[in-house]
């Protein structure tokens, strides 16, 4: 292994203070999946870790001083062989599998449910330190900081490719558009959920499915709930004019049948509305809210109807959940990956910091050699990042990309299945004013 490779990678164990340099390392992160790291170290380094490091201790893996993700040491995470040691590290998010929850939530907010779940996680050494919601964060300051520092600052070289058009200089605008897809008060959305002796992670998965959100743990140990795309850490413009990053492969394709609309129905019990005088009407449980979200201007494509009713009562809350489902599905409309050669890149530190939810602007390309690969230009969301370090490959980074719509629209209404009538809201239903 080259000296440059081994010197640039560190594994730091937070509580014990142990720091080692791996001989080989494989790191993977993927949206809606756990990240993980497997590293090979010398036998001496493996013995040091085995003697000093405790199970569940938080760990940071960094490349050229830039942390990849937050991990912890599982109970069986260290293996000593004759001439080396193997370290397996789990995503800090996975520690939520430790613990048990039995509780019924009736008309509770997303924020209250998540706070309770977090309080039941068995996390003795603090792999997770706090909880935040993307809907409650102000993005303007972070957008300015990374847009000014990164946009145009990291050029990309890709041999054998003709750039049909320049990279779209709209990264900041795309981020702002994604922020505007969702209402700031989404954390106060109401739902009813039941947890029967399940782990905090399974409870959180039920929350994600009901509210159309995601959860993940960042490098600081913050458990985030919301949408990774709405608070990216980095925005990168793939610019053909320089050689800051070395691209090995660029593959982006469009789905033949893209998603254009998502429809879901909510709960038939309207206790979420504060109309006690109407309890006699709502107790019939015949009417229910329906929400739809669609890609603006999309004429062709498939419609996804969520089969099971969501346990959400209020129309606007249901709209937020459906928009989340649409954004999730939209990432498959256009997808692909970019493979970078880290050691041949002058600005390789940007590869270390790329994470799920970041944005990349790519120019349209066509091959000038015998290959047929090409890419449609536009803005893409990072869905996953793989780093592989070994003496044979050096450092290869593969960034998985997904497309996002320029704009999302939504609506909701009250539906009465007895006569197939739609009403703008509960008041309109009570008055008999159908749409």
Please tell me about this protein's structure.
The chain is flat and about 80 Å long. The protein has 435 residues and is an alpha+beta fold. The chain is built from ten helices and 28 strands. The protein has a 15-stranded mixed beta sheet that branches. A five-stranded mixed beta sheet has the order 20-18-19-27-28. The chain has a three-stranded mixed beta sheet with strand order 10-15-14, with helices on one face. The protein has helices spanning 3-8, 43-52, 110-119, 140-150, 171-180, 200-211, 279-282, 315-330, 349-353, 426-431, and strands spanning 9-13, 19-20, 24-30, 36-42, 58-63, 66-72, 78-80, 84-91, 101-109, 130-133, 156-157, 161-163, 190-198, 214-217, 222-226, 235-237, 245-254, 259-265, 288-295, 302-305, 334-341, 359-362, 365-367, 374-375, 378-390, 394-403, 408-416, 421-423.
Which percent bin holds the helix content? 10-25%
The assigned structural class equals alpha+beta
> Uncertain regions: pLDDT < 50 for 5+ in a row?
1-6, 140-176, 270-274, 276-284
Portion of residues in beta strands equals 35-45%
| Major beta sheet summary | 15 strands, mixed
């Amino acid at each position: 292994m080259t000296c440059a490779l081994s010197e640039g990678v560190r594994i730091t164990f937070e509580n014990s203070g142990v720091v080692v340099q791996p001989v080989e390392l494989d790191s993977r992160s993927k949206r809606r999946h756990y990240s993980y790291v497997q590293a090979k170290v010398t036998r001496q380094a493996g013995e040091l870790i085995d003697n000093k490091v405790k199970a569940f201790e938080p760990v940071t893996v960094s490349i050229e001083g830039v942390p990849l993700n937050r991990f912890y040491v599982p109970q069986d995470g260290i293996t000593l062989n004759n001439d080396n040691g193997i370290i397996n590290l789990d995503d800090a998010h996975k520690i939520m599998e430790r613990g048990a929850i039995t509780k019924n939530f009736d008309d509770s907010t997303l924020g209250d449910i998540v706070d309770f779940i977090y309080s039941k996680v068995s996390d003795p050494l603090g792999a997770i330190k706090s909880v935040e919601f993307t809907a409650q964060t102000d993005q303007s300051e972070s957008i300015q900081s990374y847009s000014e520092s990164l946009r145009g600052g990291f050029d990309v070289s890709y041999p054998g490719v003709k750039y049909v058009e320049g990279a779209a200089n709209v990264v900041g605008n795309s981020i702002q558009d994604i922020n505007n897809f969702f209402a700031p008060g989404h954390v106060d959305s109401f739902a009813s959920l039941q947890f029967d002796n399940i782990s905090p992670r399974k409870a959180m998965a039920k929350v994600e499915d009901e509210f159309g959100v995601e959860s993940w743990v960042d490098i600081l140990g913050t458990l985030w709930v919301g949408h990774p795309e709405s608070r990216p850490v980095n925005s990168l413009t793939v610019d053909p004019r320089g050689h800051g990053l070395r691209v090995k492969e660029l593959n982006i394709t469009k789905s033949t049948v893209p998603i254009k609309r998502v429809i879901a129905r909510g709960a038939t019990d309207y206790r979420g509305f504060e109309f006690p005088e109407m309890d006699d009407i709502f107790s019939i449980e015949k009417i229910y809210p329906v929400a739809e979200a669609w890609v603006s201007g999309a004429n062709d494509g498939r419609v996804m109807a969520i089969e099971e009713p969501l346990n959400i009562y209020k129309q606007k809350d249901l709209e937020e959940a459906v928009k989340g489902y649409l954004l999730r599905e939209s990432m498959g409309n256009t997808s692909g990956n970019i493979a970078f050669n880290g050691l041949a890149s002058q600005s390789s530190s940007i590869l270390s910091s790329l994470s799920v939810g970041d944005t990349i602007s790519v120019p349209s390309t066509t091959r000038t050699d015998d290959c047929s690969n090409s890419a449609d230009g536009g803005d893409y969301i990072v869905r996953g990042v793989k780093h592989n370090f070994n003496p044979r490959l050096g450092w290869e980074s593969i960034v998985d990309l997904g497309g996002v719509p320029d704009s999302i629209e939504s609506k909701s209404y009250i539906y009465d299945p007895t006569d197939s009538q739609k009403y703008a809201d509960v008041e309109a239903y009570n008055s008999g004013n159908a749409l």
